[in-house]
Amino acid sequence: VIIDLKNQNTVKKNGKSITVSRLSNTNNKIYISNEVKIKPKQQQELDRDITAVLDILNVKDKSIQPMAVVISDYEMANNAVASYNPVKNVVYIRQTILDYNKLIPLQEQLACPKNKYSTLLHEYIHWSDAEKHRKKYSDFANADDFNRYIKKLRNQCKAKLDKAGVNGYNIKEISNYAVDKYASEEYDECYTEYRVKQFLRR
Questions:
Q1: 131-140: long-range contacts (C-beta < 8 A, 24 or more apart)?
Q2: With 0-12 CB in 10 A as exposed, 13-18 as middle and 19+ as buried, what is 172?
Q3: Residue 88 three-state SS
Q4: What is the rounded CA–CA span in Å between residue 194 and residue 60?
Q5: CA distances in angstroms from 163 to 74, 158, 160, 175, listed in the order given
Q6: Cα separation of 72 and 14, whole Å?
Q7: CB atoms within 10 A of CB 56
Q8: Cα separation of 65 and 98, whole Å?
Q9: How far apart are CA 188 and CA 28, in angstroms?
Q10: Which pLDDT score, from 0 to 100, does residue 12 have?
Q11: What is the mean pLDDT of each run of 10 residues along the chain (202 residues)?
C-alpha cells in the first residue's frame, strides 16, 4: 500500500485527533490512519466498493464525494461499523470491515446484512442527504446548523416512511437497527435503512 505522506490531514473522532494520509493509486478520496495497516488487495477492493456505491446512488460528479477515512477499531471507539460526519464531510470506516468474513457478522443488525455494500451504502446515503442540503442552503458552519438540518431531515424522513407504509409494526422487516432507531425517533436512520433495502434488493 502506497501512502502519500505529502497529502495528510487531521480529523477528529470522539475528541481524539487522528492523523490520516491519502492512499495513492485509488480513484476515490481514501485516507488511512497511522494506526491502520491494510493489504493492497483490501485497498483495491475498498476503492471499487466506494465506486460501486456512488454508482448505485447515481453520483455523476465523483469529485464532490466525501473523504473516506479508514481508522482502527480503537479510534472508532464505539460499536459503529462506520459513520458519517456531515459537518466535516467525512465517512469513517472501521478497519475490520475490510475483511469480508468479519464484515458480515458486524452487519447482522443492518438492512441486507449479507450484502457487502450495506454499510458503505448506508453512510453514503447520509452523505447524499447532506450534500443536497449543502447545495440548496450552505455548508454546516456550526452545531446549530447541523441541529436544524437533522431536525428537518428527520421530519421529512418520517413523512416518507409514513407514505411508504412503514410503521412501528412492520419496521422490523427492514432491520433490527431500524427498529431501534424508530423507537428513538431517529427517522433519518430508519429511512436510510429503508433505502439501503430498496437499492440492494433490485
A1: 131/64, 133/86, 140/86, 140/87
A2: exposed
A3: coil
A4: 23
A5: 40, 9, 5, 19
A6: 13
A7: 17
A8: 20
A9: 26
A10: 87
A11: 88 89 94 94 96 96 94 88 93 94 93 96 97 86 86 97 96 97 97 97 75
> What pLDDT, on the 0 to 100 scale, is given for residue 136?
86
pTM of the predicted structure, to 2 decimals:
0.95
> Which amino acid would we find at residue 99?
D
Instruction: State the burial class of residue 126 (Cβ atoms within 10 Å of its Cβ: 0-12, 13-18, 19+).
Output: buried
Element at 22 (helix H, strand E) = strand 16-23
**Cα–Cα distance, 179 to 110 (Å, whole number):** 10
Closest CA to 192 of 168, 160, 170, 167: 160
Strand order through the sheet with 30-33 = 3-13, 16-23, 30-33, 67-71, 90-94, 82-85
